[in-house]
Target: D-glutamate cyclase, mitochondrial isoform X3
Amino acid sequence: MLLTGGLKSLLPHVLRRIIRCNRHSISNTSGMAEGYKQANIVILHKSLADDFEKFCHANNGPLPLLYRSKPGDWKCPSLSSDSDIRTDCPQYRVYEHGAFTGSVKSLKEYSEQLTDMVTFYLGCSFSFEKAIQNAGIPIRNVEQECNVSMYKTAVPCYSISTFCCNLVVTMRPIPESKLEAAVLATSELKEAHGAPIHIGDPGLLGIQDLSKPDYGDPVHLHPGDIPVFWACGVTGVEAVINCRSPLAFTHSPGCMFITDLKNDSVTVGSSSEVPQVYCISQDPLHYSMVSAEATQKIKNLENLIGIDPGDRGIIHLHRPDELLKACLAISHARSVLITTGFPTHFSYDPPEENDGPPGALAIAAMLQALEKDVAIVTDQRAMDLNKKIIDDAVQLGILKRPVPLLSYRRENADSALRFLCENGNPRRPRFDHLIAIERAGMAADGNYYNARKVNIKHLVDPIDDLFLAAQTIPGVTTTGVGDGGNELGMGKVKEAVKKHIKNGNTIACDVEADFTVVAGVSNWGGYAIACALYILSTCEIHDRYLRKAVGFPQLLKKKIWLSALPSVTKKWHSFHETHRS
Model:
């Protein structure tokens, strides 16, 4: 990128004049006209214009519409005082029936065809580069004097008529310590694509190799950098290709139209508009996003369920933000496996206590409302009991439909992997999140104990195997919910259990979950997960991040989610939450 003679500090109208006269070799406009808005360009026949505008509104993350011209209008008075779209981008692309037929420096030779064509000016991420720099964050592609990296993803946009394509994103390496600052700097600049749509492993977007961008140049990450992805207006180029219009023009990726509009200084208002970033997975690396308001609500829930009615010392097991991070991971999951069952009453038939199943059903009900796949795995000897509980829950209206009920048996070393993955292939997991709630957990000696140190191993199937196997499967995360330290997943806090819980040295579960939700009663933990998932689903910042800023907000489903929340009117009291473990 050539920025000689202070080219990058020139005002937009001067830059447009230089570009128009083709006096300098400008390979891209990143870093130019700092603080001013830049625009992606799509030029289509007027017969396609209405549908393309609808496509932009349906996918306003990648395609924020700044201006739509009238047919044959080469100017854009609301964006610039003196401009000519035929000459004011450094380079254009020509498409005929969806095929790229060449790049040109000017569209003047197509002036006759342009009289029946409409120009769309779409927001560009180059516009927010100054805001990122003002936040003390380096722009690696500007440092490396190259274009930004752009990639096609596997994320489908919302289709309108003939306009259908997958999302295109830009990637900017951001130091890990600056992630939240980068999100804050861009979140309110909605005409420049707003906040990132993904932070972490590119494979989660279907991007296989960062060194091979589909458009632009490879940008090298420094040690400690995290790849951060923003929606990109080159999505419009892909839409043009797929609609197969007889003739269409776009800017060449990175060669933007520079407007006279400044990026307004945006002050984030209420806590519902302040984004926060949390890491929810290390393999693959994955961060999620949520509003400060939603975060505080979930923290309040975590505090509520942490009340210790039995005064057993569970306050020492508490780890802050575990409920929030667990629910963020569950929110991103497509298919969830739940397990429960603690046969503490070993001399009775059935030996199960009442804590656990109600909380499991509360989680399952919310997952059903959120249109996720959900199944329950339990002990073979308890299948009939759990089937009756599920059938009753359907009759009571707690569940919309029966939850598949599974059992697990250890037959060989690969049993757990084959249970969790299609044909035992770790690249094809059936579930991407596992939840254990009030489930007997294996102690360090291989046995299972109730709170009174009685060994109940003969009543417990080795479902712990699934949580251990999940640790080896990329993309599968786990949550353990417990109230005493002897429950599956509590291995994460086992040292605290040994130190602060009665009989802890013997009963402490040795099997860890990624997230440990500690509650005074485990059912409370299940109810809190259901409520936290509702809070996340109604959080606009999290909703946008989940859908990658394409399509429409899902908040219209709020009534469905609300109806799935646990409540007294659903007769949860019929399960008699007597805690005896």
Remarks:
- The chain has a mean pLDDT of 93.
- The first helix runs from residue 12 to 21.
- The domain at 276-577 is CATH 3.90.1640.20 (inorganic pyrophosphatase (n-terminal core)).
